[in-house]
Amino acid sequence: MKILVIEDERLLADSIKTLLETQGHQVETAYDGETGAEYAELGVYDLLVLDVMMPRMDGFQLARRVRRQHNSVPILMLTAKSDVTDRVEGLNAGADYYLTKPFDTRELLACVNALLRRQGEQVDVLTFGNTSLDLASGTLSCGESRIRLSAKEFEVMRLLMQRGDRNLPKEQILAKVWGFDSNAVENHVEVYVGFLRKKLRSIGSDIRIDAVRRMGYHLEAGETS
Prior knowledge:
225 residues, alpha/beta, five-stranded parallel beta sheet
């Protein structure tokens, strides 16, 4: 899962990043509210972990801004404020959970896991058309035929199958698979889509990865060629 930590205390932000990475998550950090909001609006994160008291934009404002964009990403707020009124304000702003500092790392991980499960992505297999993607093994299968994907191929295919017949912009694939700060360009996406098209054909899949100019990619299912 891809997580964004927005926290102006750099030592704490980096500590949370390290902790979550040990759990297998991809984690990026922002150290002020305005930058965090810009990152969050990319729409590529599975979870936001954000502080309340930050420069340039506080956590309440950030959460409201995210929700105004109709972004339903789970939000975990971290704050030293423990008053009921502050917790209520955080929840009303759009937070899903409110964790008071100082907190035990076990409690943080429990909250993160609970919110990620709520995303509905904790499933074993994604299916589109006559083809399935095993999330545990990274294997595409169609009937008795199966083929293992590379790490990048798997991430791109997972995003496409989650989106289905809705267009997925290239820039979202780049940010989510290669990372916001990566030097990768759109050609990288095109190359891996080409790899996936070949592998889908090799197993007799009826999935087509269709490209729409300036809109990205989406899946369609029909007769195999």
